[in-house]
């Protein structure tokens, strides 16, 4: 599913003293099957933007075009769009409510009108993909789980709807490093196995450097930069101006070069750094 955002502007509480322009003429295209990272400082407009993609917010101006159809045109039912575009909110575990994990994950697919057998298959498959064994966890209350596990249940609930596009708003927020790696790994698996388009909202350069095909940088309601991680992390000045900077390991390499080393400057993951530094040590 290709997603084209055209001249999109959004104003909260328009025509009141609290009026706030959150998006200003955004033009972006997300291609089918891409792993996209949307990054930017708090308040830069990321959440506002993603809520337009599944029709939760309606543009003040502009269009959202999914597979060549303007989703806000009269002919389109937004309930249909929401089946295709799944949105995992920040801290989704607060939305868990059923007494067992199985029932919680089954809620969405049941609402799609699937029969019991199909619902069961969806639950099993999505639990597997988020790394929760069905037989071990199906009867467990979601409230007995650790923070990272709860979040995995919440993500499984959206995955079980089998959307073509999955948007995740800060899915690693508040997790410890192990929980973060676990969730990011699962999201990467989802992308590989289902070939879903993934839009990951994050403010962690380290997280997005590892997994995104493309990065879109938001600042002040505008998309100020986009490209592959390599292209985006070259723009250190722009990233610093918008309060982001590059991954810590990229700064480390730059500092080493200032001290006379001659290392490639397009290093932005720990693994890449490990490789160049171990070559250096072996010299
Ligand atoms: P981000 O997700 O990047 O943190 P948001 O899209 O949440 O950014 O916010 C963009 C701007 O819109 C911010 O200035 C924020 O204060 C404002 N904003 C967000 N939600 C609301 C709201 N419900 N009412 C009024 N202003 C809002």
Automatic annotation (TrEMBL):
Q: Name one GO molecular function term.
A: ATPase-coupled transmembrane transporter activity
* Gene3D superfamilies (UniProt xref): P-loop containing nucleotide triphosphate hydrolases
Family annotation (Pfam families): ABC_tran
Q: InterPro entries in the record, alphabetically?
A: AAA+_ATPase, ABC_transporter-like_ATP-bd, ABC_transporter-like_CS, ABC_transpr_CbiO/EcfA_su, ECF_ABC_transporter_ATP-bd, EcfA2, P-loop_NTPase
Entry's localization field: Cell membrane
Q: What membrane topology does this protein have?
A: Peripheral membrane protein
UniProt domain ABC transporter: residue ranges: 3-245
Role according to the record = ATP-binding (A) component of a common energy-coupling factor (ECF) ABC-transporter complex.
The record's listing under NCBIfam families reads: ECF_ATPase_2, PRK13637.1
Q: What is this protein called?
A: Energy-coupling factor transporter ATP-binding protein EcfA2
Taxon lineage:
Bacteria, Bacillati, Bacillota, Clostridia, Eubacteriales
